[in-house]
Amino acid sequence: MATCHVVAMPYPGRGHINPMMNLCKLLSSRRNGDILVTFVVTEEWLGLISSETKPDCIRFVTIPNVLPSELVRVDDMVSFMEAILTKIEEPFEGILDRLEAPADVIVADTFLPWAVDVGRRRNIPVALFWPMPVTVFWMLYHFDLIAQSLHFPAEFPERAEVTVDNIPGLSPFRLSDLPSIFHPLTSKVPQGQYLLLNSKAPGAQYLFDLMSKVPQAQYLLFNSVFELEPSVIDTLQATFPFPVYSLGPIIPYFNLQYHNSSRPTAPNGVDYLEWLDSQPRSSVLYVSQGSFLSVSSGQMDEIAAGLHSSGVKYLLVARDKASSLKESFCSGLGMVVPWCDQLKVLCHPSVGGFFTHCGWNSTMESFFAGLPLLAFPIGMDQVSISKLVAEDWKIGWKVKGTNGDLVRREEITELVQRFMDSENVERKELVDRAGKIRETCRRAIGKGGSSEKNFEAFMKDISCSAKDKN
């Protein structure tokens, strides 16, 4: 019988559900069967993830959908956030009432601020999980200080390069490095995400609500590695009266052992791993712009055409445009697929770089694989991550166009050629630094590593909590 019952509630979005599930799988792997995880998702998301392999100790429970279709939330982010605040808490409590075994701890996404209130009312400790960089969390936590530099929207274009240097634990950064919810950084970001331009914006209130609950939690968990963000993590640990644990990289590295026995193919039947097997070492550029936000159709055409003209081998994930791009651009140089097992691709020896939107899960996977990056953020926290990648960790270059927001194919061709040139001194430096970060991440999750120690400490904490309640 399980001695510790974890109830996990992710924010209903792919970039939140995936790391929460990986966190639960890692927790279960450390308890030898004496842990039970109730993983709460909306009905729509259960249909999307129910076929994924998981341990028997993790069970799914559903609540009604937040919106008729949560997959269109990007088109009306304000309504989606309002629904998150008002429509999930009650059915979630209903699940707690119906549990056969009482919950010993609630692990909730930080973007669900009401979870802290639920835990307090029921005397259940709450661990808030933040699936983005600690740096981004700390930026948002200090919205009040940053807002002093953003007096009104019209000022932003003139103030984009203003430096913010008053956030404890963070190195100075520009206003343009903030997550795009603070400002209209680029027209590539759909309307509705520019939510924090002033304190009256709906997104500002949502941010205040969720950050005000953080000090009332019992634990704060991060999908990061201490050695990557030591200053800000030390500052958080000195600020909050409860444990702050960095547990990253929280990615499905535990699946890599099945590389030889499980050969995934794309939905169109393409065996992309077989194709990668036939390519020279470090010769292929992997290109993916994530699963939530999307570049425009015109920008994707420019990317595909630029890759095709570069002469560089590439594997391009294009989702809905895969078929049309395959017909237009696919040749012996490249392969276009609608989906792939990303971590297996990134860790394949023939892959030598990653053209990425800089979503945090993808970035963490690239760290684990030790790859240099071409950073092409679309919005949200990706903007801040691209700054960390290019300027703090120096393991990538930013993709910048010279003609407004659209990066032209000629610019992509030239950049990709330089980036993948094995004789390029700048590339060699990127590869060297990326390799060092790879070793840092693998040490962190290895025996005695920083993340491994934090996992053990958190497991001990919640085990003691369960015993105290019993």
Tell me what the structure shows.
- By secondary structure, this protein is of the alpha/beta class.
- Helix content is 42%, strand content 14%.
- It is built from 19 helices and 15 strands.
- The strands form 3 sheets. It has a 7-stranded parallel sheet, sandwiched between helices. A 6-stranded parallel sheet has the order 12-11-10-13-14-15, sandwiched between helices. It has a two-stranded antiparallel ribbon with strand order 6-7.
- α2 (43-49) links the parallel β2 and β3.
- α12 crosses α17 (409-420).
- The longest helix has 21 residues, at 425-445.
- The radius of gyration is 22 Å and the shape is globular.
- The two termini are 13 Å apart.
**Which outline best applies?**
globular
Low-confidence stretches: 152-156, 184-201
Q: Strand order, main sheet: write it out.
A: 3-2-1-4-5-8-9
Span between N and C termini?
A: 13 Å
Q: Pairing-aware structural class of the strands and helices? A: alpha/beta
**% residues in beta strands:** 5-15%
Total helices: the number is: 19
> What does the average pLDDT come to?
84
- Radius of gyration over all CA atoms, rounded: 22 Å
